[in-house]
Automatic annotation (TrEMBL):
<keyword id="KW-0804">Transcription</keyword>
<dbReference type="Pfam" id="PF04542">
    <property type="entry name" value="Sigma70_r2"/>
</dbReference>
<protein>
    <submittedName>
        <fullName>Siderophore-interacting protein</fullName>
    </submittedName>
</protein>
<feature type="domain" description="RNA polymerase sigma-70 region 2">
    <location>
        <begin position="20"/>
        <end position="88"/>
    </location>
</feature>
<dbReference type="GO" id="GO:0016987">
    <property type="term" value="F:sigma factor activity"/>
</dbReference>
<keyword id="KW-0731">Sigma factor</keyword>
<dbReference type="InterPro" id="IPR039425">
    <property type="entry name" value="RNA_pol_sigma-70-like"/>
</dbReference>
<dbReference type="InterPro" id="IPR007627">
    <property type="entry name" value="RNA_pol_sigma70_r2"/>
</dbReference>
<dbReference type="InterPro" id="IPR013325">
    <property type="entry name" value="RNA_pol_sigma_r2"/>
</dbReference>
<comment type="similarity">
    <text>Belongs to the sigma-70 factor family. ECF subfamily.</text>
</comment>
<dbReference type="GO" id="GO:0003677">
    <property type="term" value="F:DNA binding"/>
</dbReference>
<keyword id="KW-0805">Transcription regulation</keyword>
<dbReference type="InterPro" id="IPR014284">
    <property type="entry name" value="RNA_pol_sigma-70_dom"/>
</dbReference>
<dbReference type="InterPro" id="IPR013324">
    <property type="entry name" value="RNA_pol_sigma_r3/r4-like"/>
</dbReference>
<dbReference type="Pfam" id="PF08281">
    <property type="entry name" value="Sigma70_r4_2"/>
</dbReference>
<feature type="domain" description="RNA polymerase sigma factor 70 region 4 type 2">
    <location>
        <begin position="121"/>
        <end position="172"/>
    </location>
</feature>
<dbReference type="InterPro" id="IPR013249">
    <property type="entry name" value="RNA_pol_sigma70_r4_t2"/>
</dbReference>
Amino acid sequence: MDTNLRRRVRAGDHDAFGELFDAYARSVYNHAFRLTGEWAIAEEVVSLTFLDAWRLCGRLDEEGGSLGPWLLGIATNVTRNTRRATRRHAAAVSRLPRDETVRDFADEVAGRVDDAVQLALVRTALARLRRTEREVLALCVWSGLDYRAAAEALGVPVGTVRSRLSRARTKLAKHMELPQARGQVRGDRTTAVGVLKEESR
């Protein structure tokens, strides 16, 4: 089925792109959230990823397996560009005159404290990783790609994926301070990063 879908996508078949979206939009969304920690940005990344996939479909190889690595590779690049644009926008906004009236967010913040503390802990640990390490971690650990598929998504050798993932695991084990997760890093899944779970929408 993947081979047939791949050929139809490559040919620019609109119905095939509908099937592609239905099959992989959730995976792309989750991957983007894991890289950014922002729901709104993840939603934007999904739209831009499938737009780029449509634009690049003619370059897709006719033969191959799952289209997941191809889409996640596009999503990774889109996320990089989107985050750069977001940083530029935030810098521009910070230079604008500030409104003297500040809305009281106390009630809203109080209702989200637990989630915010947990997410902050994970994001602090992830922030210590290099961007390339976070990308490999997101692909191999959270998206479940094997080394070869992750290498295809990122356009790097399999050995590079292995070494980046190994460094990422070591750094996370060192910097995560959750009592139930301290020092537990096994296989392709880690308890330490498991605290970051997306709510299905």
